[in-house]
Amino acid sequence: MKPEAFIFDLDGVLTDTAEFHFIAWQAIARELGLDFNLEDNEALKGVDRAGSLQRILDKGGLSVSDQVFAQLLDKKNRHYLTLIQDISPDHLFDGVLACFTELKSLGIKIGLASASKNALLVLTGLGIREQFDFIGDAASVAHGKPAPDIFLSVAKGLNIKPELCIGIEDAVAGVSAIKAANMYAVGIGEPGVLTQADLVFASTAQLDIGKVLASVA
Ligand code: B16
Ligand code: MG
Questions:
Q1: Which helix (H) or strand (E) covers residue 122, if one does?
Q2: Half-sphere exposure of 164 toward its Cβ, with a 13 Å CA cutoff?
Q3: Which are the contacts of 214, defined by CB distance < 8 A and separation ≥ 6?
């Protein structure tokens, strides 16, 4: 297969906003009298905002009205927005720009498939918004990761068949979404965790485009 597009996840692949999500979710959990630790935060990677809150409530055995649920989501996001306002190109993971340059030189398109409704803001802060041929809109897809929707919507936006796309993800839910979209999955993290991925690199800095292309050829 000769890939025509690489579709990147954002948080955990291009930058690390997990610590900001953690701070904001922890504040909400404390307000509800619930415990929320780093391990809990890890399990929320790639999971959308409402899905994340639902998991926190479920773990604590709590249920709230729809109105309170919406208020909590809004409060978490307002806190998160204050935490990410200083994101700059310094927060870009090593290797991202070199990777984009290589893909462009090979004529391979670049897409973004993030579950975050704040993705455009983060991309702008990182200074890479213009690098993408298509940016998926998390707000307009019916089902979040692990459903394939966001990856399929980006393939459609790029006008490229899913089977000619390569997805890059750091989260278990994200890798499942890529496989459900019938794409080749590159994981960033640990092979023992990202067991569904076709190929795994320890970090974005180690992402080797040549190796990916050779393994799908
Ligand atoms: P927001 P990704 C995901 O981004 C994060 O990994 C996840 O922790 C977060 O809850 C989700 O975005 C929604 O973010 O509240 O900003 O809409 O990894 O898919 O780029
Ligand atoms: Mg991610």
A1: helix 119-126
A2: 13
A3: none
Specify the 3-state DSSP secondary structure of 187.
strand
Any idea which ligand is nearest the CA of 170? 2
The per-residue pLDDT for range 206-216, each reduced to its tens digit, is 999 999 999 99
Q: Looking at ligand 1, which atom is closest to the CA of residue 10? A: 20
Beta strands in the chain (DSSP E): 5-8, 109-112, 134-135, 165-169, 184-188, 199-201
The question of whether 94 is a catalytic residue gets the answer no
Largest CA distance in the chain: 53
**What average pLDDT score do residues 113-128 get?**
96
Q: Is the pTM of this model over 0.90?
A: yes
Contacts of 179 (CB under 8 A, 6+ apart): 185, 196
Mean pLDDT of 56-68: 96
| Annotation marks residue 137 as catalytic | no
Q: How far is the CA of 54 from the centre of ligand 2 (A)?
A: 18
Distance 65 CA to ligand 2 centre (A): 29
Residue nearest to atom 9 of ligand 1 (CA): 48
Q: Looking at residue 46, what is its pLDDT?
A: 86
Name the active-site residue from 9, 40, 149, 170.
Answer: 9
Give CA–CA dist 25/40, Å, rounded. Answer: 10
* 47 alpha carbon – ligand 2 mean position (Å): 9
